[in-house]
Amino acid sequence: MDPVTSGILIVTALFVLMAIGTPIAFALGSVALAALVMNRGMIELTYFGETFFGSLASFGFVAIPMFILMGAAVASSPTGRDLYRSLDLWLGRVPGGLAISNIGACSIFAALSGSSPATSAAIGKLGIPEMRKRGYPDGVAAGCVAAGGTLGILIPPSVTMIVYGISTETSIGRLFIAGALPGVMLAVLFMAWTLIACQLAGGYHTPNPVSEAAERLKENVRENVDQNLKALIRVLPFLVVVTCILFALYGGVATPSEAAGAGAFLCLVLAILVYRMWRLKPLTTIMRDALRESVMIMLIIACAEIFAYALSSLFITQTVAGAIADLEVNRWVLMAIINLFLLVAGFFLPPVAVIVMTAPILLPIILAANFDPYWFAVILTINLEIGLITPPVGLNLFIIKGIAPDIALRDILLGSLPYALCMVLGIILLCFFPGIATWLPDLIMGTGG
Questions:
Q1: Domain count of the fold of the chain
Q2: Domain coverage including residue 99
Q3: Does some domain include residue 357?
Q4: Domain-embedded: residue 3
Q5: Of 75, 183, 303, 408, which is the most exposed, with the fewest CB atoms less than 10 Å away?
Q6: pLDDT tens-place string over residues 17-46
Q7: What confidence tens digit (pLDDT) does each residue in 322-364 have?
Q8: Beta carbons within 8 Å of 70's beta carbon, 6+ residues apart
């Protein structure tokens, strides 16, 4: 069977399995194993275990569960609540300010947790009910949190950037820096659209900061300010830890794995000291959540590696890469084709799976077209962010639906789509001004790559 026909059959089988609800890791692994056995015989069963465990035998992958543990310590504590309250203190009085507070809280929480689902869940549990209570349309309330949560895979430290760095053998520290300014740019674009959406809906003036006792705090503004400032003070140690981790990475003081381990330990200690989470139950919850997400990601990575191995062994990868490389088109047309491919892949597959399967294939093509690999990492990540708020997978959409089950999924989707267009605008801006992604890494780490 020729590589093109094999590729079509494999991709079709993969989509069928996902359509009937098979977990993505099992779908990838079973399709890959079946394709290998059918084409190369039962001997492939001998190599399956070796390939599976060998794909995870990289010390760099230690950073992933450590950063996830750090994020779990933050997400399981009231840090999101305190962050949200303190931002609402400053932004809650302007029209649309509460929605902007949610996006700002998502941006900062994304840096603390490095996880899009955790960001959407932590901020959404607080922000969506409060916005709806103050008269914001359901679409605006749900959309701004769903979109803000996507920043978790772009703003450093990012687990997906770690996976990209290991898959392409590029500097993880440089990838982190490359994602910083684009992350801020997207947050600003999200805020700009939120203001426009609120004005189109009539504008929302929210004079009272978030509080469970709104009437009492209305009579005592000083107490309200004190509570919010105390909340900000409780968040600051976590921000200091993240800043120190990034400084250690950028300054070459520690490897990503070492920095992640130190960050996980410090955030766990801070959660215990600041929020008095020393009982067994909250600590067990943190460890359980971290273990569950780590195993899920590592299983996806291992099965995606087997899937990529199957595609390579059957010469499907080489055929596709050769066809793309042989396209006699302008390099920006080539980039547009790659963006379209990544966008469609992000609709169906989680970011980690897309990166593991496609980054090693696309990187040589990107380099041959004279594009910067770190700039491309940002472009790839934003495409995958769009997939988090678009069907059929749209993980953040379903998280928001779980938080606010009485909001129709249609309203959540319609409220999120303008933010997806903001991300498309962000990709266009990065194409016209690549320095948004490359200037800061070059400034801090030099131009050597």
A1: 1
A2: 61-313+323-445
A3: yes
A4: no
A5: 408
A6: 887 878 888 888 899 889 888 887 787 777
A7: 777 677 778 899 899 899 988 888 887 888 888 888 888 888 8
A8: 113, 114, 260, 263, 264, 267, 268
